[in-house]
Queue: 2 jobs
Job 1
Amino acid sequence: MFASTPKPPYYAVIFTSVRSGDSGYAETSERMNELARQQPGFLGIESARGDDGVGITVSYWSDLESIRAWKANAEHRIAQQRGKSEWYSDYVTRVCRVEYDYER
Amino acid sequence: MFASTPKPPYYAVIFTSVRSGDSGYAETSERMNELARQQPGFLGIESARGDDGVGITVSYWSDLESIRAWKANAEHRIAQQRGKSEWYSDYVTRVCRVEYDYER
């Protein structure tokens, strides 16, 4: 459930979104998760979406270059385009360097 | 709904959790939101929790010192203690520097 991340520094992509459409979303979302896991530098992913349609997905990566390569992935680019036109009324993406972390 | 953050760099605290108890949670959560907004360096907050109990809250701050001061706030420390003993079966906190961001 939680991403099993290494000792910092590593990188996080925070994707906050509001869902507006459903058609084909679940399949593509599952496929993108599967595809992300196969990418170099992928460390893990955490996701939550409430009944109000607001969702936050955080994916973790070993370095910025892996994040750039994933964003440019051809199949992922098609999904990003559909997200923009069909699935999200709004979103923000923030790319961060994790400086320190702690657990329960 | 989305945090209105400035041009990077700024800082993010990603808090991923699993809820286990409810008693007093809503009041404290609302109070902590209100109190956080009054702290120096606070920029905004985004939150989502699904029906499976997994939640992600991201708060945004101007600098690491503001994050440390908020963690050490007396009223917040009591809430953190209750979170640990009553409200969350598990959680991870990650403190990050936002390197770049982009919107829809």
Job 2
Amino acid sequence: MKRLLVQTGIICAVVALAAGSAGVHAQIAKNVAQKSPWGPGDEIGTLNMMTDASRLDVIKQVAGGKVYDLGVEMFVGMPTCCVPFGDPNFQIFMTHTPAQDTAKELLSYSGDGVSMYTHSGTHIDTLNHFGLHGKIWNQVSSQDALGVRGWTKSGADKYPPIIARGVLIDVAKSKNVATLPTSYPITVADLQDALKKQATALKAGDVVLVRTGVMTLWPDTAKYRLADQPGLSLEAAQWLVEGQKAMLIGADNFGIESFPSKDPENFVPVHTYLLAERGVSLVEALWLEELAKDQVYEFLFIASPLKMRGATASPIRPLAIAIRK
Amino acid sequence: MKRLLVQTGIICAVVALAAGSAGVHAQIAKNVAQKSPWGPGDEIGTLNMMTDASRLDVIKQVAGGKVYDLGVEMFVGMPTCCVPFGDPNFQIFMTHTPAQDTAKELLSYSGDGVSMYTHSGTHIDTLNHFGLHGKIWNQVSSQDALGVRGWTKSGADKYPPIIARGVLIDVAKSKNVATLPTSYPITVADLQDALKKQATALKAGDVVLVRTGVMTLWPDTAKYRLADQPGLSLEAAQWLVEGQKAMLIGADNFGIESFPSKDPENFVPVHTYLLAERGVSLVEALWLEELAKDQVYEFLFIASPLKMRGATASPIRPLAIAIRK
Amino acid sequence: MKRLLVQTGIICAVVALAAGSAGVHAQIAKNVAQKSPWGPGDEIGTLNMMTDASRLDVIKQVAGGKVYDLGVEMFVGMPTCCVPFGDPNFQIFMTHTPAQDTAKELLSYSGDGVSMYTHSGTHIDTLNHFGLHGKIWNQVSSQDALGVRGWTKSGADKYPPIIARGVLIDVAKSKNVATLPTSYPITVADLQDALKKQATALKAGDVVLVRTGVMTLWPDTAKYRLADQPGLSLEAAQWLVEGQKAMLIGADNFGIESFPSKDPENFVPVHTYLLAERGVSLVEALWLEELAKDQVYEFLFIASPLKMRGATASPIRPLAIAIRK
Amino acid sequence: MKRLLVQTGIICAVVALAAGSAGVHAQIAKNVAQKSPWGPGDEIGTLNMMTDASRLDVIKQVAGGKVYDLGVEMFVGMPTCCVPFGDPNFQIFMTHTPAQDTAKELLSYSGDGVSMYTHSGTHIDTLNHFGLHGKIWNQVSSQDALGVRGWTKSGADKYPPIIARGVLIDVAKSKNVATLPTSYPITVADLQDALKKQATALKAGDVVLVRTGVMTLWPDTAKYRLADQPGLSLEAAQWLVEGQKAMLIGADNFGIESFPSKDPENFVPVHTYLLAERGVSLVEALWLEELAKDQVYEFLFIASPLKMRGATASPIRPLAIAIRK
């Protein structure tokens, strides 16, 4: 990281802010990419928990036809996590437009190109996004599986459609705030409190979506920014995954976890724990406001990552439909 | 169109091939953008046919948990419709990679950017993609609604998630061919024959997916190409929309309709008829091979276009789940 | 402008800062694009002042072989003028890299793509960059000459190589400061004082390069920024062009003129005056530090814009070689 | 290479055509990157031959003010070497355009972005473009000097402006053909014959530009293409560099050398010989037609690569001005 940032001439505020309690999470994070329990060929980690039966089960519980749209709009000037890291900003540009003098032509032809960081807008992080010591999930090494256009393993092209039971944990509401404080690390107790207030029980295989409230600041680029957002603590992530057997974790912030990291060696300790050690993918920048407003805490969750070969992420527009409690 | 192509120095084979029977479709196509029956503010046309009730109805018919993935993989070198028209080819490129000497660093950070034509891979065409005489669906004029970054009307950002009953019409199978002949225009009788053989009845509001078989040539860029693919005739499109009240039309070819057009003034007469005159959006380059193999002709169809502001298309990865007959 | 910025969701600090003395420059700027004295077909304005004789004359005066490099390095994370306006940031990305295990392959193949705003790094603004009331230099209207990929008139593709006598006016040195104050508007007297101290006389057809000292802040993106840089006042620009018959004006800042503009209707009044009313092109973000250090005030100036069709600018790397006084 | 192409799904006709006489050039090419005679820090190879004296010497010989423009226009749809290798096609797109209703606004603001392969149009290949067994010129290894955004050594950012004596060798004219035959490998005798007919003598440090005549096919994308162009044989390249001490070699074709290569292990043997073994940079896709027409064989050559950090090439627009014989 340091090497890359120096190379590209970027001064990284996030890294600069990191300080202090290195190694505090030693018991949780092993800082070594782990083998998959689903075998040596596994590239999708906990998404293997989905089965025809699990999908049918949740579909059968659907209680109405209202669809909640969990994706944000994408536009020139939108907030981006990663321009400070050297990544491209979002661009859409026209390649065909109708003639200005429309009397001249029958056809009015419009077309457009886009360019973006794959982690733009609401998106899923795939398991090759962060590894440890050169290895990603399932101990796949960059020497073996990283080409010029991306990893041959665990890219978005390998991802299945996601159809599963989803649960919203509205931490902001539970704490009665519009948005959690800057850099606030959500604790296990915070999650438990919110679940209790909601009367929601987690189940193995759930897609767990955590609401911090920061999306109320979207799309103000000065306020909705990675650098100091609240988010999950490592302990909370561990509780969700090891304790509650969550299949997929999402949030309304840019990076799931609270920033900046307290670990000077690792600016994304929750990412590496989830992606490289636990095989858990992440969904970021989710629009959870309508679900929260309607107090819909349990739902059919649907997301369909674009199969871009090797990609470390895909923009997605997830959907939710309320299920019977 | 001619002006643009001349300007950009592109010789357009499709246009060069167009010849002959101009005006033959006079009774079907009015060649004027039409007003929406859903009111002056409508930007999505027939997608207004979806309701909470229609969605719940089809979800309730789901008969199993197997998910059919109707989207293609996206990769450098993939077939593209539109590079000959001057549009960008698909690019994915890395912006962060792990250090080659992994002993040096704890974190192995991978990131990537993409750039593409919005009509890449499996995608939905929005109603602003083609208009007539400067106006798109609902008689919205380019003078009023076309900015430098795209239309303020009928872009992908305005599109709802699509959850509806889907029907596959396997014309290739009905005609007992691997793929329909080059440039073959599918007739109304072809559709009726296939539906009869399948014992499938269309219903108002259906997402109708037509299989020509050309996806069996994918991803051979020399064979899977817009210029001479089989596809719908204008009459067949009319029958589906005006006769059968289809809500959305998709196909496994690059452009829904057969190419090249026979109309020297209009290289995409089915597009303009559907988009500008009928408010019907299109889904192109669908992967229908698994549905066809399993003879799944009726299904829950789910697609979730990315809300890219103003975009004339969005890559999507639609899903299908069989429903009870 | 306002329309575009609203459309793209960008809050433009420059515009927000503009206030006050609208119309003060009424005598200088007519706010109407002018006809070219070089005829109705002219697209390059004052660059027509170059002739074989003028080029040979200055080449003959060359006094040594030392070459001054007036272009800046271009890299990911470099300062950019225009990301706040929605323009793309600078990206370079690899499309081919050698195998990590080099024992496997004879060839080590590296290739790369770039994407950028055309006004990146040291660059020349062409006459189609800013017009007035829909018309650029020589009263060419956007209706007639603006296509989806750019103007058919006055783009970088129409620009000749530039070989001319160049003069440095070191205003920062004349005022004995490292860099002129924030937003400082350089006056005619400032230019005259600096020329006098330098003992430099301007000649008709000169390339005039103005040093504000801001390049001493490069490439600190927090300090080298368009929004509040010092630069030419409109009066100073007028004096150079109408009084001294300068052919081309350059500076070490991002926008030639001082920012923010005092005209609420025009955030770039010097640009519109020079480009649309006087046919004078601009060179921005020049590296003048070596010339200044060596007190080289008169030189052979060479620049060779890339002939990108229609482009409103081209990155360039101009050169200077001292001539005899 | 094979790995990369397979990975990106591209079938590479050039490689497929390669066959036969592997190893025939064993005496010329060592197939190992060499150390620089200019020391361990050298990144620019033979461009070190330039000195203040050499530059002044050629400038002093300038015989007139006519400038020959050796660069091609760049536009959407232009011929590109490398789209078949997965590289981006040339794109220019507008990011700001004037309002269509120009009565509304004073300012008519146009801006544009570009994206391209760095080897687009007339361009210089830098020494990091091709190495051998993981090492580029001066035995710099990819392990040490290749980052995600490019090499830290021998990129275009390290390149000096090029001001030197240039010589045109018009092989097409010498052989009395419009263009040399497809795939024709230019021999040492061909070069000697042409030089004799032209009465031109090469000197150490020359920029040698070879005319095959293929630019007469530009910009017909069906005819001007890398795959089967005539160009230098390895022997001819050796004669120019080892025998005549050429500093820089250019040509009007896409790849300097004849294609396809006869070496199944190396599809660009002249590239690797010049770049990795001899430290000689290359200029490709030069417009030599005006020089040829005017029979200007000796000239001041000026080129100024853009200092894009790490880039394996830069588009350039070189200039030539005739010198006294």
